[in-house]
Amino acid sequence: MCSLIRNHFSIGRIKKQFRNRKLSLLAFYDPTSVISDKSRIQRFVVMRRTTVGDYSYIGYNTNIYHAEIGKFCSISKDVCIGLPSHPSRFISTSPIFVNIINGTGYSWSKQDLFDAVPEKVNIQNDVWIGMKVTIMGGVTIGNGAIIAAHSVVTKDVPPYAVVGGVPAKIIKYRFTEDIIDALQQSAWWTRNDTFLQERIAAFQQEITPDNIHTLMEKLK
After folding, report:
1. Neighbour count for residue 80 (Cβ, 10 Å)
2. Radius of gyration of the chain (CA)
3. Do 208 and 133 sit in the same domain of this protein?
4. Which of 97, 117, 155, 168 could form a cystine bridge with 163, CB 3.0-4.6 A?
5. Where are the alpha helices (DSSP H) in 114-205?
6. What is the pLDDT of residue 181?
7. Active-site residue 86, yes or no?
8. pTM for this one?
């Protein structure tokens, strides 16, 4: 928490704020986080060890710890990504016994005996995450996936899958296998802004088996 506060009042933060006016003054992130100047971060978002790609937005009151977020992702409010863990193989689960700095505010241990940092979460591109979703550490969410509101994601999510529930399970896929393969191969999110803007019409119509090849041709 101290690093978040120090960074909030640093010269680097001021420069970042000047470059990205869509970065809320009430968002907090540590010096290890890398946030695109083309992203939007709303108030009371807290990020540690996190990267955020172009044109991704994060709704208010979201907490992210050790994650890589790709481009064009839509993350709603009250989302938790990468939760710190507690010791489960000791007498107690309280961190007061195994960590110098811990959530209790008291320091009993003389050394850190447990690493509470979650495994890295990898959220690829064009992912939509609903309100109050929880994503556990170490999970990878594939391109184009949708996570239903209030879900708890404990396992990897395949590209273009729609998942929901506690724990989250695959409900369906957004498209057929052939269409998913075509979208994956297009990797349209790697294109520059001008390329995508000039082809915006391709993004403004629903995909069908009849038009997928025409649409993908436009993205070549």
Report:
1. 16
2. 20
3. no
4. 168
5. 177-186, 193-198
6. 96
7. yes
8. 0.91
Under a CB-based contact definition with an 8 Å cutoff, are residues 94 and 76 in contact? no
Nearest to 3 by CA among 50, 53, 43, 41: 50
- Whether residue 159 sits in one domain with residue 72: yes
Total number of domains constituting the chain:
3
Task: Find all residues with CB under 8 Å of 70, minimum gap 6, and list them.
Answer: 53, 56, 123, 124, 125, 126, 127, 143, 189
Using 50, 70 and 90 to split pLDDT, how confident is the model at 1?
low
Asked if 72 and 161 sit in the same domain, the reply is: yes
What residues make up the domain containing 192? 175-220
Degrees, nearest 5: CA angle 112-113-116 = 80
φ, ψ for residue 185, nearest 5 deg: -70, -30
**Do 75 and 96 belong together in one domain?**
no
- Spatial distance between the Cα atoms of 143 and 189, rounded to a whole number of angstroms: 10
Q: Which two tokens stand for residue 208?
A: 């069908």
| Cα–Cα nearest to 167, from 147, 140, 182, 145 | 147
More confident site: 9 or 180: 180
Regarding whether 105 and 126 lie in a shared domain, the answer is no
156 and 69 fall within a common domain? yes
Q: What is the DSSP string of 76-105?
A: -SS-EESPPP---SSS---GGGT-SS-TTS
* C-alpha closest to that of 129 among 103, 153, 155: 153
Q: Are residues 190 and 207 in the same domain?
A: yes
pLDDT, tens digit (0-9, with 9 covering 90-100), for 73-121? 999 999 999 998 898 999 999 999 999 989 899 999 999 999 999 999 9
Of 8, 66, 86, 213, the catalytic one is 86
Residue 41's CATH number:
2.160.10.10
